[in-house]
Amino acid sequence: MAPGLYRAMAASVLSLHAVYIGWVIFGAFFTRGRPRLAALHVATLVYGMTIEIFGFWCPLTALEAWLEVRGNVPAYSGPFLLHYLDAVVYPDIPPNLLIAGTVPFAFGIYGFTFGVSVSDIRWDEKTPRRGF
User: Fold this and answer.
1) Domain span at residue 24?
2) pLDDT of residue 79
3) Does residue 16 lie in a domain region?
């Protein structure tokens, strides 16, 4: 295949990666009253935080790097967030500090949204069930 096609596919994977991270961070806002969607969000939240905290391998990062090498783009090493956000949003911040700030931020957003959702629940039997 032509290098341009690999670069285009790498850009697509980059976009998918950004959407996934957005879902992990802000997905709780879309799960109110949808228990199945909430369960999916909790699973992706735990997976995303586990990868960030313990430095596990991310399949989207690996796929993007593989496509960039084949598209003659210098591949980066390290996590997706550190590569794309470190230089722009967090200049000269050590990776451990970046992760230490990102994880509590995500927990805080989820905790706030879950707290609002729990306070909206009516505990009487006459309340119709919402969600799926």
Assistant:
1) 3-119
2) 64
3) yes
Q: Which range among 60-69, 70-79, 105-114 has the greatest average pLDDT?
A: 60-69
Evaluate whether residue 58 is within a structural domain: yes
4-13, 17-26, 75-84, 107-116: the lowest-pLDDT one: 75-84
Interval 9-26: pLDDT, tens? 988 888 888 888 888 888
Q: How many domains does the chain have?
A: 1
Rg (CA), the chain: 18
Q: Which long-range contacts (CB under 8 A, 24 or more apart) does 64-67 make?
A: 64/10, 64/13, 64/14, 64/17, 67/6, 67/7, 67/9, 67/10, 67/13
- 129 occurs within a structural domain: no
Say if 125 falls within a structural domain: no
Our separate counts of H helices and E strands in the chain read: 5, 0
3-state SS, residue 94: coil
